[in-house]
Specification:
67% of the residues lie in helices and 5% in strands. By secondary structure, it is mainly alpha-helical. It has a 5-stranded parallel sheet. It has a 3-stranded antiparallel sheet with strand order 10-12-11. Strands 6-7 form a two-stranded parallel sheet. A hairpin with a 2-residue loop joins strand 11 and strand 12. Helix 2 packs antiparallel against helix 4 and helix 38 runs antiparallel to helix 39. The chain is elongated and about 165 Å long.
Length: 1198
Amino acid sequence: MSNPSPAPVPPTDAIKETTEKLAAFVQWIAQLIQSRSWFTILLLLDVVLLFAANPGVATKLLTTFFPQQTLPEQYPGLFWLTLGLIFVVALVVAVRTMPQPAADATDFTERKAIKGLRPFSAEDAEIFAQLQRNRSLKECLESITSSTFRFGILMGESGSGKTSFLQAGLLPKLSTSQGAHRAVYVKFADRPPIDTIRSALSEQLKLPKEKVATADLLTLLNIATEAIAKPLILLFDQFEQFFVHHKHRSDRQPFIQALTDWYGTETLAVKIVVCIRGDMCDRLVELHQALGYSLGPQEVFRLEKFTPTEAAKVLRVIADTEDLQFDDRFVAELAEQELANREDGLISPVDLQILAWMIQRQTVEELRAFNRTAFQKFGGVEGLMTRFLERTLDARMIKAQREAAVKVLLALTDLERNARAGVLTITELQTKLQNTVKPEEVEEAASWLARSDVRLITPLEHTTSTGDTTGYELAHERIIPALMRLAGQELKAADRANQLLDRRVNEWLGNQRNSRYLLTWRELWMVRLQKPYLVWGAQHRQKAQLLHQSYRRIYQSATAVALVTLLTIASSGWLLYIPQGQIQRVRWELASPLHRVEDEQVAEAAIAFAKDERWRHAFDIVKKHISDPDANVQFLSDAATASPKFANSNIAKQILTAAFQVSQTLEDPFDQAETLSAIAAASGQLKDTDAARQMLKKALETARTLGSTSVGGDADEESSDDKSETLIAIVQASSQLGDLVSIREILTATSHEIQSLKDPSNQFDVLNTVAIAYGQLGDIDTAKQFLTDALRIQTAESTSSPYESDRFDALITIAGTYKQLGDTDTASQLLADAFQIAQALDDPSDKFDALITVATAYGQLGDADTASQLLADAFQIAQTLDNSSDEWGAGDKLDALSEIVDAVSPLEGTDATKNILTSVWQVAQGLETSADQFDVFIDIATAYGQLEEPDTARQILEAALQAFPKLEESSEGWGSGGSNSLINIVEGSENIGSAIAARDVLINVSRVAQTLEDASDQSDVLSAIAKAAERLDRQLKDTTAARDVLTEVLQSVSMSQNSAHKSYVMYVVASVYLQLQDPDTAKQVLTDALQIAQTIEDDSTKSDALSTMASLYGQLEDTDTARQVLAQALESAEISGEPQSLSSIAVAYANLGDWGEVLRALRRCREEERVQALTEVLTLWAEKRNPMLRELREEEEE
């Protein structure tokens, strides 16, 4: 039977688990920063960079958020260099912070008579029994073991040996297996008292830790008494530490209450002896009151210092034990006169230990003795402790080591109470001294101070939240005064810090905590350095608040500076590496010099800003920098035209509104009306009919002012022309309204203004335009009415020539309009009238032109027969042109023949049209060879192609090609004329209707082009052939024929010795291969072209060639090569100093999306070309964001 699958983890649990792990990770990082673990932090940074910012990951991130961008080429190298530098720095930090090897461990439990400042322990009971404490020990034991004893006090001055008395005296006597009692030694420090008692009971009575882990005091005592089955005596040593580390009554209350509960439980066989410094006995009043107990004389034990006699005996025991020479008489005298305190005549055990220690540690044998000689050389008792410390610390030869040792001792001292500061671990000492001593120096100093030959601090096993560890405490409070004197220099700085803190806290409090009186960063640093030695006093809370507020202000200032720095770095990175930032630099660079360039350039730049959707800035530029009305009108018209292309119609409407407001400031009514018409047309495209109608009405009002004041002559005629153009623009713009009612309203208002036009031709143009507009509305009757009026105006005057009265042109124009209206009968009738006018003409050239015009119009009506007949008549006239006038020659005759061919081309391929072409071909052949003759040949071939006679067309082109060598003998044949003739043949081949025929012609032209002597001409022809090959594929759908032509072009150009022209032709061939969907061949040809281009000697030409090839590499999506080629092009362009080349390179960079390189390419460009290039770059950026703008540009270019 299979085990059931584990239940899925609830989502909430998973979230909780993930959150906890993340919180632990963040806390770990915070601890690293707080403890200044730079080694670990640097390695963490190295690992993060390795996995999160390596070139592979960085490339993926960049392409994800900015697909058009790539990493700089230098990134991989800089990344690994940065990674290596961080690792090296981490290694240096590790070496510098690694603690020095500590001295060999010393047996701190060795049994000796000389303990220095350390107390005797239970293992020293045998020798301690010889040190004059038997009487005191006996009295104390008798009282403690009494059945009535429950609570007592052992007190004595600092240095009187209380701890030794407990550990080496009472504890061994009360801990024998045969004894009626069992004692447990409890040493108080900075830990919670019940935890201290729990730890002592667990260790000394071997109680199960899990059983006592959470027990309160009464439970602990019950468990302990049950375990030992005899009365328990607790020896509380250094009980003053309870008051030192629990300063507030509320902090002490829980433990005092626990003792009260113990005392109230009389059945519990537990006794307590409290050992405390004599100067702090008064602190026990609080405990006495809580217990409700008054001590009797048998419950208070005072451990006195030694009398001189006792001291001498103690020194004798020490000398005998340590094998030191001893002079009884001298020692008795020494004890009486030198060692004894002047006030009470007693001697501290510490003084005896230090004296014995200093004698025992001498290396010269004669000084290792308790006699006068050794004592005199030793220096006497005066300042014994100070000299002891000085001589001990003299071993610290290096100043930094000595200072570290002194500061560790001070850190273990409560300077306010002249007491021990408790047990501190190495980590706690390092934290306390973090701004004054290096962590590794703290560890080394503590290790040295705890050595058996120094013994200024005592190592103790200390339990913390992270487990058991070694802590340290001051060996004895007796050395504190000496330490204070020795540390005078250090404490001078501490005094200054304390004085500053006292003064500032009073000023701060006295001025309603005004931030003006907070500590400056220098003052904070001074206080921070002396933090271990600060005296907080009664204003502890206020000082802490002052420091907190001061640090807070510093942190806020630092945060502000960091934010500004971060923003500066981020802004710089944004401007230098992010496309949006790079284009912002382009905008700034473009806007800066506009006040120094021509108004036309300013208008173009303003349009670029408008397309970039910064239309307010665009209008500001126009307002500030354009004074020419024409440039102003051009900007407004272009802005209105571009506005419908914006995806956000609100932006488009805002642009039109702004353009309208500016248009009202134009002084010339014609300019104003023209602008309003453009705005109206754009509003119509935006489906904003109301706005468009209002604009057109405003334009009409403006148009009415045109010509209102007649000045006569040319000015009056010009005004009429302006008004007619304006009315026509209004009519054309009305078609964009989309609202029939509005359109009719505008057309009606416009028609009312026609009569005000003084020139009949102007009236005719407007009437015809209105008629077309009505026709588009489907109102044919009204349209015909306007056409009738138009025709009437133009036929009102009769002259001998239609070109004088415009009657002929009017008939042709109106006939075309009737065709648009679908009334071909009326159109044919009008053309017949026009033909009658043509027939009446006397001048052959005028008659010829008129017949061609009428024939073309008939062809547009679909009446090929009539058109053919008229063209035949025109051909007969053309044959006589060179004979009828001395002013007409062969060239004019060829032009006439070309006009006939152009008119025949759109007609159907009837026998009549073919006969006309055959006749023209025969006549053209008989004329003198010239470039114009070539043009006629090509026109005829094109016409045959359109008539679906490709073979005939090819024969004619080949005939023209065979005649080409004859041009060598004429002045027209070579140079640009020769190349133009071949290019015309190439263009003609595109229209013959057969890919195979066209291919054969193009290959033949390619071979003929090799005979051209001028490399530039050869390049032009071969390039034209390559481009024609692309049209074979696009128009005739024959890729094979196109490839055949390209192969022939490459073969032909391979013979060229001119690197510039050769590389250009190959570039064109490569671009055509790309259009043929063959990128591999395109890239191969382009690579060959690039190699040739790199050999071009002229830097300007080389730069142009390389920049065009780079653009093609970009189209091939080989951006790396494109950038490399552009870099080479830029280098050549900067050498040549050709501004046009630099501009082209900048635009090429923009096409690649390398907006940041644009400015670098233009750094040496002249200002005018620079503005022009930046305008183009900004326009490209706008078009990339809005392809509709690109379509608008293409429409305008067509």
